[in-house]
Amino acid sequence: MNFKDLRVYQQSSNLFPRLYGLVKSWSVFDQRSIGGQLVRSVNSIHANIAEGNSKSAKDYIRFIGIAIASCDESRSHLMDSYNVKLIDRDVYQKYDEELQSIGKQLTNLKKSVNHRIITSP
Length: 121
What we know:
The chain is mainly α and about 120 residues long. It has helices spanning about 5-25, 30-55, 55-85, 90-120. About 85% of the residues lie in helices and about 0% in strands. It is built from 4 helices and no strands.
């Protein structure tokens, strides 16, 4: 399956420009510190799905694991952004829920690929 057809890829890819735009509205200091970390970790989610998709199933599982870790890292940076009042509660909750959804989809994708490895001859 082409990675672009995966719902989790589409959702994480669509999340990136929205968070990028949010970070661009912050002060230069905040953009370069926590904003840069948030943008890089969110970008890493869909990038690892794409890169891993062309690898062996075993390697793909590893790349999905990296995408899961990037998703969790993004949630942490998002919480930090809320804690220092760069975003309000509604914005935090909206993006955190989306990242949780992406994380669950990635976990299911990882299980699916792993199942294919176990059941293939």
